[in-house]
Amino acid sequence: MYPRCHLSTLRLSLFLFLFSLFPLSLLAHPFVLVLSQDDLKDALNDDASPLDSDSSWDDDDFGGTHVKPDDELDPGSWRRLFEPTTTTISTSDDSTLGSYYAAVDKMIYASSNGDARMMEEAAVEIETAANTEGDPHARSVLGFLYGMGMMRERNKAKAFLNYYFAAEGGNAQSMMALAYTFSRQDIYEKAVKLYAELAEIAVNSFLISKDSPVIEPIRIHNGAEENKEALKKSRGEDDEDFQILEYQAQKGNAGAMYKMGLFYYFGLRGLRRDHTKALMWFLKAVDKGELRSMELLGEIYARGAGIERNYTKALEWLSLASTQGLYSAYNGMGYLYVKGYGVEKKNYTKAKEYFEKAADNEDAGGHYNLGVMYLKGIGVKKDVKIAFKYFIVAANAGQPKAFYQLAKMFHTGVGLKKNLPMATALYKLVAERGPWSSLSRWALESYIKGDVGKAFLLYSRMAELGYEIAQSNAAWILDKYGEHSMCMGESGLCTNAERHQRAHSLWWQASEQGNCKGL
């Protein structure tokens, strides 16, 4: 019996309570969220709701809590191998993780070249680091090898155990794999806790003023055929349109400079992220009068991305941006006053004023931040009803952090009736935008450059974490390229039987999440 094939669409119907009697359609691929009166808790305006007693509400909900770089939010990530210019490496990291990264690098090289002997060597080194040294990140990769049946027998029980101990050791990607496993088995009590923690990490990787661009993973196929149009737009520095843009920027075009900064900062259009280049182009753009760069410079200084963190300079740039009609910059300013960063002391009154200025100018982030203030009673009287109103407006505008808050409401039963399957699905939606989503960018870059083996390895890793697009991309590569997919089996390159079994398993997992093209 095949799983039901439909878009993962949650239908909740909402008659918006009191303040907002209009239809709600929250579009955040692949969800359409519709809430109904039945989902509203009777005590929506009850200030006695258990906000303070529930530990899931204890952390900072404004996003960017500690403004950490991605390599700290996603420890053990392969980022330093793919994006060395964006990675901060300490001396202690080099000594403790050197053998782990050397083994992963060998595994990636072996996958690119179809070298089964080297892949086995890498697997042995990973297993040694996991079992002898107790390295949680090596345990995570060992779980991946068991889960996929790569140079180890395919054993989901061993995969689960390695992911479990890796997650206990702080490996976030293993938490994703565990959460996905629990959700597939409808064990929502465990899945929701893991996805909640992962979604929080994801929220803290988002920008503090502007909304981060939603970079959806690219589906490299349209059914049986390659998705040539999408791939053409993701060729990075080899793309003709990008080369024209770069030429215009080098000739002094301020708008082109700003776009260059955006592309490098976020890793758009198939580019590798490079914070140093992004900073350079934003500074050049400001010098040429491109005002939009001011807000991103504020973000860069607040996050310490490509430059030493400096909250005072962050506030200066955000303040300049706000005076030029960039209203989302008010969110960053409000955030700094909430946290007391770059200012004399915390000032909730001023923070609220800035959030209101953003909201008054139809900025979704402003609505979200005001919702957090009312939800937690920060500088205002706590009012769940008002907080809910703000979150709905923000979510209706596609604000991902608002989905996070709605997930927490379903999780805790604060403001909305407790619904763990719904909370799990919404947390997953947010968690999949976390820093580990960089795997998709690296996989696409590899595929476009013709490195099918590396692309397949990276998509396979994402597939274990529960990304539907990665599951279908990996399955399609197996079907399309056959033995040239460089698929690694239990004791060498995949046999035909192993390849067909793995493709079927991947298509099946994708179908459970709404993609039935391969079945």
Search tags:
3-stranded mixed β-sheet, two-stranded antiparallel sheet, 5 strands, single chain, 519 residues, mainly alpha, globular, 24 helices
In whole angstroms, how far apart are the ends? Answer: 11 Å
Number of helices: 24
Question: Going across the major beta sheet, what is the strand order?
Answer: 1-3-2
SS-based class: mainly alpha
Low-confidence stretches: 6-32, 47-59
Q: What fraction, in percent, of the residue positions are helical?
A: 55-70%
Please tell me about this protein's structure.
- With 519 residues, the chain is an all-alpha fold.
- Helix content is 58%, strand content 3%.
- It has helices spanning 70-73, 79-82, 91-113, 116-131, 136-148, 156-168, 172-184, 188-205, 228-232, 240-250, 254-266, 275-287, 292-303, 311-323, 329-339, 348-360, 364-376, 384-396, 400-412, 420-431, 438-448, 452-465, 468-481, 496-512; strands spanning 11-12, 26-28, 31-35, 221-222, 225-226.
- Strand 4 and strand 5 (225-226) form a beta hairpin.
- Helix 17 (364-376) packs antiparallel against helix 18.
- It starts with 10 loop residues before the first strand and ends in a 7-residue tail after the last helix.
- 52% of the residues are buried.
